[in-house]
């Protein structure tokens, strides 16, 4: 055989996401069959990651992707986390363009999940976020409180909001302060 692989338990200060990435790289390099990954990973989990695993249905606990999703969800990492990281990403001074481009691409893939979604669903996710970004402030706050999943839901909600709050129409109308135009 090859080199012996020694995995270490996840520590309380470990980033669950980084821990899983490291595990996936080791599992890939050692050519462990994907159907065994969840079972191999389980004894190395601690804290909230372990609780997420423990709370899964026994059949789901055998599927690595389900285990990974449960851990990331339990520890507060979601597609929205990746979208926010993407929006905050800056070009570091002295960085290599290829490395920065790869990081941006990685964040896009983690946000949009193109392997799990159709191209229409990916386009919908991008359109929804852009629509929310350009809404007038009060309409945006109203819609964001509802955590909508589709552009159609957001559009209907904004229409309802604007029917009640006419000054938000198009975000262009402003209240006049009594002075005339000059």
From TrEMBL:
Gene3D superfamilies: DNA breaking-rejoining enzymes. InterPro entries: SCAN_dom, SCAN_sf. Residues 83-161 form the SCAN box domain. It comes from the Eukaryota. Coiled coil: none annotated. Pfam families: SCAN (PF02023). This is Zinc finger and SCAN domain containing 29. The lineage of its organism: Eukaryota, Metazoa, Chordata, Craniata, Vertebrata.
């Amino acid at each position: 055989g090859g080199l012996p692989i020694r995995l270490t338990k996840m520590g309380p200060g470990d980033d669950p996401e980084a821990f899983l990435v490291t595990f996936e790289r080791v599992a890939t390099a050692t050519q462990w069959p994907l159907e065994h990954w969840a079972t191999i990973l389980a004894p190395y989990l601690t804290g909230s990651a372990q609780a997420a695993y423990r709370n899964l249905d026994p059949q789901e606990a055998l599927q690595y992707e389900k285990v990974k999703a449960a851990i990331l969800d339990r520890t507060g990492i979601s597609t929205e986390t990746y979208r926010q990281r993407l929006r905050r990403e800056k070009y570091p001074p002295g960085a290599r363009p290829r490395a920065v481009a790869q990081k941006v691409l990685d964040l896009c893939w983690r946000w949009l999940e193109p392997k799990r979604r159709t191209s229409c669903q990916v386009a919908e996710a991008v359109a929804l976020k852009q629509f929310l970004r350009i809404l007038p402030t009060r309409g945006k706050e109203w819609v964001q409180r509802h955590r909508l999943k589709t552009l159609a839901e957001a559009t209907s909600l904004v229409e309802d909001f604007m029917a009640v709050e006419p000054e938000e129409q198009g975000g262009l109308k402003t209240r006049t302060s009594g002075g005339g135009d000059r």
